[in-house]
Amino acid sequence: MPDLGTLEKFLAGAWVDPAVFALRPDYRALLVAADALAPGPSDDTSDALLLAAEAAAREALAGRPAEELPHVAAWREAYRAFGAKPQRTRNSLEALLRRTETGLPRVNRLTDLYNAVSVLHQVPLGGEDLTRYTSAPRLIRAAGTEPFDTVAGGEALIEHPDPGEVVWCDDDGVTCRRWNWRQGRRTQLREDTTTALFILDALGPMTTEALYATADDLVAQLTRLGPDIRAARRLITPGTSVADD
To answer: Residue 35 pairs with which residues in a beta bridge?
Structure first.
């Protein structure tokens, strides 16, 4: 069970390639590492939070398409900047918003929770099993040779990102493709995950204050599931070095 210092050390090693910031100088990544989580299957608590997120999304959309929301529109521009087609590979926030009318997915307690917070605050947010990382995370423009552990047609397979694609990865390969589109199998949250990494992505329309507020809500919701959690956080902005806070 990692102590707070171990979580902080893990986050201190995270970095974002300057080539990514060159695409979007307004990009900020807020990383939250949390331990002593209370995992499990979807339950009434996570369902209630998802229902609240669905209601908030319907109010925010009010009959307009998700891509007209300012933060979603900014992420579409970011995808185009590295050659992705946002109408084919939508960022995680847009993908969730498009599902709110028929119902957000129910996966497990931790995944349900961060999906709900993502929709409520309109920010792309991913959750990973921290214990399955082989190094600190980094956001880079891919060479195209990095392995990505995924499933297609019900079969497990290894894919590779496109050269220049923006990906999160560690020493063993890609953990999330196209910035915040699809997470890999290796580090996905499970019903027995007790130590997790959450990545919150922000572009220009979202203020840093709003980004921190999203992280505050995330930690508050995690604490409602298990009051003994420990959490560390780190904001990465242009010019942030590996050792900076």
So the answer is: 230
**Pairwise CA distance, residues 174 & 160, whole Å:** 8
Q: Where are the beta strands (DSSP E) in the chain?
A: 15-16, 28-35, 125-129, 138-141, 148-152, 155-159, 166-170, 173-177, 182-183, 196-202, 230-236
pLDDT in tens, 25-41: 999 999 999 999 999 99
For 148, the token pair is 């990505």
Asked if 67 contacts 73 with a C-beta cutoff of 8 angstroms, the reply is yes
Show the tokens assigned to 195.
Answer: 């130590």
Q: What is the amino acid identity at position 23?
A: L
pLDDT higher than threshold 80 for residue 241: no
Which contacts qualify for 213-216: CB closer than 8 Å, 24 or more apart? 213/121, 214/30, 214/117, 214/121, 214/123, 214/125, 215/30, 215/32
CB 77 within 8 A of CB 89: no
**Would you put residue 178 in left (φ > 0), alpha (ψ -120 to 50) or beta?**
left
pLDDT range class, residue 242, cuts 50, 70, 90: low
Q: Which pLDDT value is given to residue 1?
A: 63
At position 241, the amino acid (one-letter code) is S
Q: Is the separation of the CB atoms in 21 and 27 below 8 Å?
A: yes
The token duo for 110 is 């931790």
